[in-house]
């Protein structure tokens, strides 16, 4: 199944921020436009809390900030691509350009693990990452995800 | 409306008001049921079969007219082929009704009430009282052998269950209310309000009483009884507050010797009755390869054949108790009467067992009154005959006293309900002068027949009733402290930032036990990790460094060392873990060991065994 069954077209954004904190805020802001996010501040706090425990920058220019939190009623996925690579304290030390925010409700354990695994697996493929980086707008990124 | 709300906000007041309502319904149901029964008896037995039974003095309904009543002697009566076939027809109609619409209504109703109380959360479908009433009218009206207390108890309980449903009562309150319904039905039908209330709460157990239901049962029974007394003159034309009229009786302590003899006779017959009653159902009718609809008809046919020889075995037979109470031993040759009574007692045991065992609808209390009363009568006659030779200086006890004591002793032994039996016997006859010997014979009969009960659904005591499982487990578990059962053990905790890759290594180390306890950077307990929650992620290498313990842990739940095992059990059931880490109140972040669900159960079993052995 393509990744687009996990993400809505309007949740793919081009990021304007230049710092890790600002990127996370921008991603949460995009997520908060969806009705399944009840409380933007709590979601941001949960994402920052998780990030403070251990980085979600898993290498290859990819970060998957995520959280299970009461502020979300159903799974929400936001993909952001920054114009310039950002220092995200990733595990391989490289800067990050592709960000996938995944948030679920506290009791949606399976959906959480499955979404994390599918995005991590897909975006670790160099060809997919390159296609996402080459895309000039969210629609093109969506088309890439449709084929993944 | 506000007043109603204010009343119903108080649980005790609410139960009293509902018991009052149930009492009104049970009283009306008893009137209607008695009327239906008499109409059916008049038509089937009086008009078709031409068999006329005597009636108790307080129940001269006046519906049967035109024939000479049978007495306590051998006599053929009725149109033979109809005497055989009409009970079979009644059985067929009863079988059709019960089998098709309410299988719960088959047999004797008290057992159904007992089972509903213990095992069915007090639920009795609303169709059951309706079908039970109709089926009993067909069974007993057509000559089937049985009584009315079981059906009216089930009818009262069924109506109470319906009321409980309408008022959204808790399971506990519904259980209490169905007992109030049974008490109301019995109290009205037998004009024995206290007897009805006491029997309803006593009959559930062999060695216990459902005291919590007493208030509701009394309120309902008194209401139903009063309503019955007010309306029965208009419906039936009788006004007597008691069923049986008795001559004046005085109690002399020396007569206890004879009453002990009577108790022994009742207990022996009680054992025979129980084994025949259950044997005929289980070994005969359960084994007959016949449709359930037809079995009561076959039972009716057998009863009809027996009635060709002794027609007094037909129907309820309470009138023969009145005959015994009125009997003047000085005016009759006693030999034939004694022989007839022995035959009638044995045949009545047989016909009741056949009617009930085949699936006919009726009760066992009425036959107990007849069999017990006639046993008392027979023993009384024997004492009357033999006493001048052996105890010439003692005045013989009244035959009526033997009849009343026989009724109580026989029922007390069979139902394991000595209080209800003695109060019922007193109220039905007005024979309060016999309270002391009634107490003695009832208790002794119960002791003799302790292992035999006519009611299969009866349990030993509250310990053995699902209705009290929660109370008992609460009582037992809340008396055991976790500190008394826990075993100290080293518990290794997991860091909240451990990655999935590291977690795999941890799991392979058998010093770690699930659920894993998670600590944060400050060393405080932060969460728990059960195998079920990480199984999905465990074998996905893509998640090796993306998922850490923080992502998959759940909220920490601990058992505190000072808590009792009931509190711990609640935590198990609320959170679904098989084991919980234990901490002390003073050091909430130091895990002292684990307590497993199974250990709580083991402690419960041990405590139950200890309590039983200390009894």
Task: Tell me what the structure shows.
The complex is a heterodimer of chains A (148) and B (615). Chain A has 148 residues and is α/β, with parallel strands linked by helices. In chain A, 40% of the residues lie in helices and 22% in strands. Chain A has 5 helices and 6 strands; from the N terminus they run βααβββββααα. In chain A, strands 1, 2, 3, 4, 5 and 6 form a 6-stranded mixed beta sheet that branches. In chain A, α1 packs antiparallel against α2 and α4 runs antiparallel to α5. Chain B has 2 domains: 465 residues, Orthogonal Bundle (Clc chloride channel), CATH 1.10.3080.10; 136 residues, CBS-domain (Roll), CATH 3.10.580. In chain B, α6 packs antiparallel against α7 and α12 runs antiparallel to α15. The radius of gyration of chain B is 31 Å and the shape is elongated. Chains A and B meet through α3 of A and α21 and α22 of B.
CATH superfamily annotation of the largest domain in chain B: Clc chloride channel
| Sheet with the most strands, sense and barrel status of chain B | 3 strands, mixed
Number of spatially distinct domains of chain B: 2
What's the total helix number of chain B? Answer: 24
Q: Provide mean pLDDT of chain B, rounded.
A: 87
Percent helix of chain B, as a range, is 55-70%
Could you give the order of strands across the largest sheet of chain B? 3-4-5
Order of helices and strands of chain A: EHHEEEEEHHH
The CATH topology of chain A turns out to be Mannitol-specific EII, Chain A
Number of helices of chain A: 5
Mean pLDDT of chain A: 94
Q: Describe the sheet with the most strands of chain A.
A: 6 strands, mixed
Helix/strand-derived category of chain B reads: mainly alpha
Coarse shape of chain B: elongated
What is the CATH class designation of chain A? Alpha Beta
């Amino acid at each position: 199944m393509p990744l687009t069954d996990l993400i809505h077209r309007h949740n793919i954004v081009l990021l304007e921020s230049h710092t890790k904190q600002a990127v996370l805020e921008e991603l949460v802001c995009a997520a908060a436009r969806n009705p399944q996010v009840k409380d933007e501040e709590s979601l941001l706090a949960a994402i920052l809390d998780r990030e403070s425990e251990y980085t979600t920058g898993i290498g290859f220019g990819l970060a998957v900030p995520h959280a299970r939190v009461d502020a979300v009623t159903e799974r929400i996925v936001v993909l952001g691509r920054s114009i310039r690579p950002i220092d995200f304290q990733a595990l391989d030390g490289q800067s990050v350009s592709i960000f996938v925010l995944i948030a679920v409700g506290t009791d949606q354990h399976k959906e959480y693990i499955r979404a994390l695994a599918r995005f991590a697996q897909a975006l670790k493929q160099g060809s997919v990452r390159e296609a996402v980086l080459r895309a000039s707008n969210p629609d093109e990124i969506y088309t890439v995800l449709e084929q993944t | 409306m506000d007043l109603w709300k204010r009343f119903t906000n108080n649980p005790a007041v609410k139960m009293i008001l509902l018991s009052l309502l149930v009492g009104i319904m049970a009283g009306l149901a008893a009137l209607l049921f008695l009327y239906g029964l008499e109409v059916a008896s008049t038509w089937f037995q009086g008009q078709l079969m031409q068999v006329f039974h005597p009636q108790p003095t307080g129940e001269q309904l006046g519906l049967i007219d035109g024939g000479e009543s049978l007495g306590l002697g051998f006599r053929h009566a009725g149109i033979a082929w109809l005497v055989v076939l009409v009970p079979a027809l009644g059985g067929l109609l009863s079988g059709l009704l019960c089998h098709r619409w309410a299988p719960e209504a088959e047999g004797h109703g008290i057992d159904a009430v007992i089972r509903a109380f213990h095992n069915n959360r007090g639920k009795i479908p609303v169709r059951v009282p309706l079908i039970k009433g109709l089926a009993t009218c067909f069974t007993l009206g057509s000559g089937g052998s049985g009584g009315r207390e079981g059906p009216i108890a089930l009818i009262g309980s069924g109506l109470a269950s319906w009321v409980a449903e309408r008022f959204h009562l808790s399971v506990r309150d519904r259980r209490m209310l169905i007992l109030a319904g049974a008490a109301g039905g019995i109290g009205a039908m037998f004009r024995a309000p206290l007897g009805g209330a006491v029997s309803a709460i006593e009959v559930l157990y062999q060695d216990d009483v459902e005291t919590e239901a007493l208030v509701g049962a009394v309120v309902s029974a008194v209401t139903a009884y009063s309503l019955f007394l007010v309306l029965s003159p208009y419906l039936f034309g009788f006004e007597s507050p008691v069923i049986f009229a008795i001559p004046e009786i005085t109690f002399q302590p020396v007569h206890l010797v004879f009453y002990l003899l009577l108790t022994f006779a009742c207990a022996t017959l009680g054992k025979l009755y129980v084994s025949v009653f259950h044997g005929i159902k289980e070994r005969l009718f359960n084994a007959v390869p016949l449709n359930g609809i037809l079995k009561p008809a076959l039972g009716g046919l057998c009863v009809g054949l027996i009635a060709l020889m002794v027609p007094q075995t037909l129907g309820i037979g309470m009138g023969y108790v009145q005959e015994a109470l009125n009997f003047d031993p000085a005016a009759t040759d006693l030999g034939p009467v004694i022989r007839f009574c022995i035959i009638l007692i044995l045949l009545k045991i047989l016909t009741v067992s056949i009617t009930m065992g085949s699936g006919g609808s009726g009760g066992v209390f009425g036959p107990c009154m007849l069999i017990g009363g006639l046993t008392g009568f027979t023993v009384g006659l024997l004492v009357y005959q033999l006493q001048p030779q052996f105890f010439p200086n003692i005045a013989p006890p009244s035959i009526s006293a033997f009849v009343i004591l026989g009724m109580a002793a026989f029922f007390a032994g069979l139902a394991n309900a000595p209080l209800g039996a003695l109060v019922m016997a007193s109220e039905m006859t007005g024979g309060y002068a016999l309270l002391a010997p009634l107490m003695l014979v009832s208790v002794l009969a119960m002791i003799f027949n302790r292992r035999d009960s006519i009611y299969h659904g009866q349990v030993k005591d509250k310990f053995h009733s699902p209705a009290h499982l929660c109370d008992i487990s609460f009582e037992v578990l809340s008396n055991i402290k976790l500190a008394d059962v826990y075993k100290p053990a080293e518990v290794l905790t997991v860091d909240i930032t451990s990655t999935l890759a590291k977690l795999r290594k941890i799991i392979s180390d058998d010093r770690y036990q699930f659920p894993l306890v998670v600590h944060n950077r400050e060393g405080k307990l932060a969460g728990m990790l059960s195998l079920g929650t990480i199984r999905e992620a465990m074998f996905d290498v893509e998640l090796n460094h993306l998922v850490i313990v923080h992502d998959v842990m759940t909220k920490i739940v601990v058992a505190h060392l000072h808590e009792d095992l009931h509190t711990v059990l609640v935590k198990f059931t609320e959170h679904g873990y098989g084991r919980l880490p234990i901490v002390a109140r003073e050091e909430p972040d130091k895990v002292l060991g684990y307590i497993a669900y199974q250990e709580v159960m083991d402690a419960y079993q041990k405590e139950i065994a200890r309590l039983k052995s200390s009894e």
